[in-house]
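Fold sample X.
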Amino acid sequence: MSDGGVIAADHLKAFIARIERLEEEKATIAGDIKEVYAEAKGNGFDPKIMRHIVRLRKMDRDDYSEQQALIELYAAAVGLPGV
């Protein structure tokens, strides 16, 4: 392998090492989030609804409005009252 190949291999190894460290951090953070949901559940909150709210808060306002309009349209089409 030429020097260029060795340099590329070292560069690749560095990227892989960074990704592995980030994956470890991601797993730790995921565990922390799970603990927060468990704590909230212990205080009487519904984690499923909380996750839904977190997803909604991440959405762009226009996307949220469009999704809500479609939910109302589909709910009305299947006779679901009060949505």
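Fold sample Y, listed below.
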Amino acid sequence: MNNYRKAKKTIEVSVGESLRIMRELQELSQAELAELTGIPQSTISGIENDRISLGVERAKVFARALKCHPAVLVFPGWELKDQKAA
């Protein structure tokens, strides 16, 4: 059972890239996501290109539209380290 190696993370994903990936996985255009969320397409573009901050409230709106947990969008590169029980 110990004959495996944990895969290494090879790329870092930004918040904007995470939003784009989730949107594209659901085959939505920015315009379609804008229609679903009420957030302007120009703002979505800015977030996806890391020019505009996502923010918690927008993350909640996007998460509802994309049917995912907001943390998927807000913390795309977060890794849980092994923690010892207290």
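Sample Y note: The radius of gyration is 16 Å.
Also: The longest helix spans residues 15-25.
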